[in-house]
Amino acid sequence: MSTAHVPAQPPPPTPPPQVAAPHASEATRLLCAGTYLDASYRDCVIDELYLREHRVAAPSLGYDAARVLAHALRARRVELAWAWGVLVLLALGIVAAGWWLVVLVIPGLLLTLGRRVRGAADDPPTRRRLPAFALRWFGRFLLAYLVLVTLVIGLGATGEGDTFGLVLQGLRDGLPSSLRFLLPEAGPGGVTALDAWLALATLLAMAGCVAGQQAHFTRVLRGELSPRHFPDAANDPAERVGGRPFQLLKHRIRIEQHAPLVMYHEAHPFCGAGTAHDTWVLAVELRPHPVRERRPIGNGAVLAAVRPFLEQLREVAEPAEQDGRVVRDRLRHLQIDECVFLPAEGLLHRGDAPYDQYSFNMHRTRSLEEGGEKRRHFLRIRVGGWEEELVVTVFVRVHTQGRMLMLEVAPHVLFPVRADFKDADHEAYRFADQNAFGKTVHILTRMASAPGQALAALSRRAVRGWRRMTGEFTGGQPEGPAVSIRELAAEPGGSLFQSMDVDRYLRSVQDRIAYGVKTALADAGYQTDEFAQKVVNISNGGVNIESVQDSTFAIGNHARAATRMRTTTTGGGQAPPQRGLARDGQ
């Protein structure tokens, strides 16, 4: 009995790593954490997605806006609860300790005002930085001074020549005459020792509220917003809160944000896609080939030729495929789909937007070849890197008219989430891991501004409640998105590694687009022998075409087309490697 030698079989190709769903992505988690950190950002999320009922939600690339809204509303409820607790304690303290507690609150108001004057910028202008510096340090010194005076009174100063009375008189003499009203007379008719101790007890109770709020924030970040538990949206407490109207609103947002039919605002057509990155238009004159049979060419045929070359970007390198090694290149998760942009103007109700599959297919079929202005068809290519924090989206539109082929390429980049949102985990663990003394100092430094923060929170809620009661947010005609909550939380730029990734994604995608258009022209019987092999983005919206022969090109908004029948070339164009596709004979 003989046995045949069977060579070792190559391992099966490694499937690409799983990509988290939008509701479980890292970008969504960081945005949810940001609603607890930044009150201004939280208010923008609530205004845009909850209060403005007539406004369509912006497309959400790599995140779930509905889940961010759920956490924004929860963070506001928590903030208002602690704010009411601080103000109730303050009111009770004023009743018990008298007006002296009001004086003790003044430094905290100065600290809050200083923070407001400075703003949220990392490097504010001098006109903001200097007044904020003065307000904050004056508030700190004044707080320390008043607490010392309160302790002196509480320890028995009577103002009648005793030791503590002499100390109190010395403190009073050290104040400028304009500020001596801050230092009361001790004893009968003034601030008693009981008043002083009640005032200090009230401040400590408010410090307890601050500690409770900080502990709750830490518990949320280490619990449902932790990387381990966040993907489990079903057990997220924020998702379960809210009645049927809120659940219906979340369902509508999730339909709008991921639908292939985009209802847009005329002033912000690509709202949600990020920052425009060198948008360009290439116009090519269609010249029949002298030998090949010419066939009609349309927009759909060109895009159909482009798509297979884009799909090649998902393929791994042959050595890695043969060895069965894991390849984590984000181009493996390249997403390609078709979308139709429709203006939101003209809708009677927000719910009338045609998001069903039948309506989308109808609009897609009509918009593909019509080349209209308001209804536009795009091939959308998206790459999500850095845990969906860096999103590169390229919109491609083709239009054939007047023996010309116009290629529109609109790249957009969503940069990573704000650094302070990313640092939320570190802040939570840093507070939780501090010793008792460190936690005490952390709480006391925030206790002084607690009344001011509470007043600010309740004031914002009152203003928005009034605006909602007066109908400012409701009753308007439906309109497209004007603000993207993802764009509001994006950094102005990325790191060097991220910039390199953006360039690599864009150049890879645009190279495939250029070659796909070239293939479509060749298959239709048009001259493309010396067409540029690559179209590379350059600064200021320009492009670089490496070689041209017997074709006319117009590039940019103010370019002019000229034709030369003979052009000296520097190199021939080579097709990208094909797998399962026949090479065209251009």
UniProtKB/TrEMBL annotation:
Residue numbers spanned by region Disordered: 1-21, 565-586
Listed name of the protein: Uncharacterized protein
Record keywords: Membrane, Transmembrane, Transmembrane helix
Entry superkingdom: Bacteria
Composition bias type Pro residues, residue spans: 8-19
Transmembrane segments: 81-111, 137-157
